[in-house]
């Protein structure tokens, strides 16, 4: 039986990692590159084990595991390896007349010892992707994977212990008790992926030590469908982004559809037709759909479906099997706005369609709710695209597709408001784990008495002119003009 993780273990772990960090080992370019290369070896040599663990935990299809977890990770690591020198190089900064003569730069400094707490739905991607950022930025890091995906969690522990430098990169497995002990420690950053409810616990714990946090949360991501769209492609992309991504158990999953009453019948017909084309007449038997992670989440989803005035709104699917943790792709039409399903993040294979008198109303519906992690629009109307992008507040926006923005490394990935704070991916991951240190270099040349006491009206005028970078005024004062 594994030894219980106690308070002293948590405290010793942080002390040990802080000692490594203070020794400077993690700051070197070589160390960072070596660790990143080890992560690449994990992806290259252990893909079948990773796919098997994800199948154990979630029944995740091989294609989804190989592409959306392993291949995306491989991309992240390769990008970091390619760009690391550039990322680490100090950025030159402009100086002003006030400090003349001087030069300045911004140095990206590692924060120290950081904690990454990840979620169960993409357990490899969501664990290793932030770790790539932490290592790239030169930190020591502890990863706490989710206990709800135990096969993935123990494989992460095994592989990271096998390949990475144990003096600076560690994994702690466990649930609430272990995480609470970790949260009692002083970290230099906490990077949390999970629900907004638990995020409040994380932020409260972090506040005790004034530790900064990145919170990667979720929310109800809306999909607006305009009638001026390529409906066939629209529906295929929605199905892929909803059920084809862990059966709706994804943070950027379409949560509900908004479309007009007039256009809805066409959307529904196409959805029904394509769902059969994707998953067959009996989707409960399909090998291309993940199962629900556990009975708690199965019961949570069942409760949403079984609520009064909701179950009668099912227009497709609705089959479920608690033993097998399976729920069929399910579409609902015009459920009450105050129902559970329209107020809690669904995070599963249910998709309500909410119909409107005109598409304009979709802006009000979205604005009246907490800010989502993603908002999607399908249209060919250029003006509508621009208005949506400019006025809808969400972590990210995708026009005419679902979820694909998270594969673009030049875009920050993160939430806003209730969907989170901070962001990562690509260089943003490096920045999330760095302190941008301002450094100003002055020489002893050109020392002037104007800022030294005793003060005078003349010194005051000159200093004001310098601070305002007003050269004309500077000359006037120096030449004695009023
Ligand atoms: N933004 C993103 O990148 C992203 C990705 C995946 C999931 N999510 C969001 O995460 C949520 C689902 O994930 P989840 O169910 O694993 O979230 P969760 O909040 O239940 O768990 C996430 C992590 O928090 C830990 N945890 C749970 N209870 C805790 C407690 N009381 N104290 C301390 N730690 C605790 C868990 O051990 C786990 O490691 C959804 O809201 C989803 O949208 C966001």
From TrEMBL:
UniProtKB keywords: NAD, Oxidoreductase
GO cellular component, one term: cytoplasm
Superkingdom of this protein's organism: Eukaryota
GO molecular function: aldehyde dehydrogenase (NAD+) activity
Gene Ontology BP annotations: aldehyde metabolic process; response to abscisic acid; response to water deprivation
Active site: 216, 251
Gene3D superfamilies membership: Aldehyde Dehydrogenase, Chain A, domain 1 (3.40.605.10), Aldehyde Dehydrogenase, Chain A, domain 2 (3.40.309.10)
Family annotation (SUPFAM superfamilies): ALDH-like (SSF53720)
InterPro entries reported in the protein's UniProt record: Ald_DH/histidinol_DH, Ald_DH_C, Ald_DH_CS_GLU, Ald_DH_N, Aldehyde_DH_dom, Aldehyde_DH_NAD(P)
Residue span(s) of domain Aldehyde dehydrogenase: 10-439
Similarity comment: family membership: Belongs to the aldehyde dehydrogenase family.
Protein's name in the database: Aldehyde dehydrogenase
């Amino acid at each position: 039986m594994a030894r219980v993780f106690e308070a002293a273990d948590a405290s010793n772990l942080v002390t040990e990692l802080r000692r490594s960090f203070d020794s400077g080992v993690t700051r070197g370019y070589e160390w960072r590159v070596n660790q990143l290369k080890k992560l690449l070896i994990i992806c290259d040599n252990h893909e079948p084990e990773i796919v098997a663990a994800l199948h154990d935990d979630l029944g995740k299809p091989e294609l989804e595991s190989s592409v959306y977890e392993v291949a995306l990770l491989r991309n992240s690591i390769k990008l970091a390896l390619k760009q690391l020198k550039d990322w680490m190089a100090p950025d030159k900064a402009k100086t002003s007349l006030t400090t003349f003569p001087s030069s300045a730069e911004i140095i990206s400094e590692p924060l120290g010892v950081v904690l990454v707490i990840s979620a169960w739905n993409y357990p490899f991607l969501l664990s290793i992707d932030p770790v790539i950022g932490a290592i790239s930025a030169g930190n020591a890091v502890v990863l706490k994977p989710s206990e709800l995906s135990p096969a993935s969690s123990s494989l992460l522990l095994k592989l990271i212990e096998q390949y990475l430098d144990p003096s600076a990169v560690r994994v702690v497995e466990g649930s609430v008790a272990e995480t609470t002990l970790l949260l009692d420690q002083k970290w230099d950053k906490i990077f949390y992926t999970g629900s907004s409810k638990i995020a409040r616990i994380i932020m409260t714990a972090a506040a005790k030590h004034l530790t900064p946090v990145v919170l990667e949360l979720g929310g109800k991501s809306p999909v607006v469908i305009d009638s001026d769209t390529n409906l066939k492609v629209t529906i295929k992309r929605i199905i892929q982004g909803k059920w084809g991504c862990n059966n709706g158990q994804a943070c950027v999953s379409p949560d509900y559809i908004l479309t007009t009453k007039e256009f809805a019948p066409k959307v529904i017909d196409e959805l029904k037709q394509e769902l059969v084309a994707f998953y067959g007449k009996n989707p409960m038997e399909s090998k291309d759909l993940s199962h629900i992670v556990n009975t708690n989440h199965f019961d949570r989803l069942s409760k949403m479906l079984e609520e009064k005035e909701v179950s009668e709104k099912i227009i497709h699917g609705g089959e479920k099997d608690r033993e097998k943790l399976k729920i069929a792709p399910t579409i609902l039409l015009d459920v009450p706005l105050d129902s559970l399903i329209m107020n809690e993040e669904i995070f599963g294979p249910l998709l309500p369609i909410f119909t409107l008198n005109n598409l304009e109303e979709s802006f009000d519906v979205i604005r009246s709710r907490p800010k989502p992690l993603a908002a999607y629009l399908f249209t060919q109307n250029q003006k509508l695209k621009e208005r949506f992008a400019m006025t809808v507040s969400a972590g990210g926006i995708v026009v005419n597709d679902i979820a694909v923005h998270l594969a673009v490394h030049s875009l920050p990935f993160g939430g806003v408001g209730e969907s989170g704070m901070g962001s990562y991916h690509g260089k943003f991951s490096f920045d999330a784990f760095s302190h941008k240190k301002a450094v100003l270099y002055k020489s002893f040349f050109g020392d002037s008495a104007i800022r030294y006491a005793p003060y005078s009206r003349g010194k005051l005028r000159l200093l004001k002119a310098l601070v305002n970078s007003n050269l004309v005024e500077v000359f006037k004062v120096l030449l004695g003009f009023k």
